[in-house]
Amino acid sequence: MMKALQIAASGMSAQQTRIDTVANNLANVNTTSFKKSRAAFQDVYYQELAGGARGARAELGGGTRLAGLVKDHTPGTLEQTGDPLHIGLAGPGYLQLTDAAGSPVYTRDGSLRVDADGLLRSTSGLPVAGDIVVPEDTLELTIDIDGTVSALLEGDDQPFVLGQLEVFQFTNPAGLRSLGSNQYAATGQSGVAMFDDGKTEVRQGHLETSNVDVAEELIHLVTAQRAYELNSKVIQAADEAMQIAANLKR
């Protein structure tokens, strides 16, 4: 009877993780370029039971366990904002930033800003790769679909090229390591960062929305709650059976 308790407990733990994952997805439904996660589970070891009819194998599973949380890097929709410092990436690419240690990190959050020194940075404060500096006397900032950043300076008739946004892509984006603040780091599973080579268009004045589907997440939440309840009923039934067995000895 203890076996049933352990199996049901593993099921409750798994569904709690699933509920936590859904909660995190829903909490970030309005987070720019957020990528939803999905909990993946595996069945655990099997015990071969004696007494199978006519030599048939009888195996009893030991419950379930978390295999991992899988990031869904499906692009969200591009929403027009009209802000010249906002960019949306139409395609599989990721914008490269530089962290405090000088290492590259990647994001699809195109909420850019200019600091006091004119350096183009992400909303989290990391400089955009290439150290693009916007002059103080800039009248108009233009970002082409290939990532070229140009500025029309006061007193000039033609825009001046400041640099180019560096966009990369990965063989397996699901293997990227999440760093928080919409930032990712390359891993052995994601593969090395490769130049995008024009597969991604940079759309100025747009931002990518979250790829969370609220209706879909609510369905996942309801099914997880029901599965949690069913596992709790298994524990209750096992407890009642143990009480009956204990009373037989009296």
* Proportion of beta-strand residues: 25-35%
Q: Sheet with the most strands?
A: 6 strands, antiparallel
Task: Give the N-to-C terminal Cα separation.
Answer: 19 Å
Output the structural class.
Answer: alpha+beta
Count of alpha/pi helices: 2
* Topology order in helix (H) and strand (E) letters: HEEEEEEEEEEEEEEEEEEEH
Overall geometric form: elongated
Written description of the protein model:
The protein folds into 2 domains: 2-73 and 212-247, no CATH class; 78-208, no CATH class. It is 24% helix and 32% strand. The chain has 2 helices and 19 strands. The chain has helices at 2-27, 214-247; strands at residues 37-43, 46-49, 58-61, 64-71, 78-80, 87-90, 94-98, 104-107, 112-114, 120-122, 138-143, 148-153, 160-164, 167-169, 177-180, 183-185, 194-195, 201-204, 206-208. The strands form 7 sheets. It has a 6-stranded antiparallel sheet with strand order 15-16-8-7-14-17, with no helix packed on it. Strands 11-12-13 form a 3-stranded antiparallel sheet, with no helix packed on it. α1 runs antiparallel to α2. It is elongated and about 100 Å long.
What is the structure about, briefly put?
With 250 residues, the chain is an alpha+beta fold. Helix content is 24%, strand content 32%. It has two domains: 108 residues, no CATH class; 131 residues, no CATH class.
